[in-house]
Amino acid sequence: MPFPEYRSSSLLLSGESYAGHYIPQLTDVLLTHNEKSKGFKFNIKGVAIGNPLLKLDRDVPATYEYFWSHGMISDEIFLAINKGCDFEDYTFGSPHNESKSCNDAIAEANSIVGQYVNNYDVILDVCYPSIVMQELRLRKYVTKISLGVDVCMSYERYFYFNLPEVQHALHANRTHLPYGWGMCSDVLNYTDKDGNINILPLLRRIVEHKIPLWIFSGDQDSVVPLLGSRTLVRELAHDMGLPVTVPYSTWFRKGQVGGWTTEYGNLLTFATVRGASHMVPFAQPDRALGLFRSFVLGQRLPNTTYPPIGD
């Protein structure tokens, strides 16, 4: 049973990336509870998911559309992918239930993009792990900044959380596990099958319950690009008969364009965050703050700024 002090609280649910699956699934569970409960009900006031994996047959081809539209692969490779791949049959686990010609074209595209581009933020520089880990072991300051972002954070984080004194201070690893901390673990059994789930029916259910739903995209992400998310939101709105209540237009943060946004039926919002990565707050913390402030307060993103250019 929920703690009494939270019974009257508004509940806002949000996450990024694979949260495109687990946040709508969590919301669905809570809605089912509300429908069956004769007592306590969750007061869900909004759901927001960023660069979310929603539907493989649209999100996956969007990656290669993004590569092509940003000059990262050639016309020939892009056409080969379009010709050889049936993304309606695409599965999360390799070899993705695709033909050899499709997998070969995708492999060539990925090879051309290469390892020297961060797919989660294509405008960032990359960190060289062998150099940064060596310097970290020597306790040197190694932060590599690109466009205001520490591109070596992943390696610094791995090093930091495996320091015995840090684990001791956090009361972590009290059982002295024989392996180090990492973002993902082979110890746990992950299944690729969950990634095949089409999340759009759950999004539809959320909107049908009159819960504001925001889907936002950092526009420098090629892993789950805005090209797929924007299309899926528009198609969902069309299927639900939701009219455009905010035409596609700029939104502002501190006198600059924060991104672009549109809204359907006063409930379903799509927004981009200009210059942001797969994890929006990582690359654009202030614009992320502006977006979340509007979401939490139940307000639309600001569409005007002052002073106007030309005055």
Automatic annotation (TrEMBL):
The lineage of its organism: Eukaryota, Viridiplantae, Streptophyta, Embryophyta, Tracheophyta. Belongs to the peptidase S10 family. Keywords: Carboxypeptidase, Glycoprotein, Hydrolase, Protease, Zymogen. SUPFAM superfamilies: alpha/beta-Hydrolases (SSF53474). GO terms for biological process: proteolysis. Gene3D superfamilies: 3.40.50.11320, 6.10.250.940, alpha/beta hydrolase (3.40.50.1820). It holds the Pfam family Peptidase_S10. Its EC number is 3.4.16.-. The keyword Hydrolase applies. It is an enzyme of class 3 (hydrolase). GO terms for molecular function: serine-type carboxypeptidase activity. The keyword Magnesium does not apply. This is Carboxypeptidase.
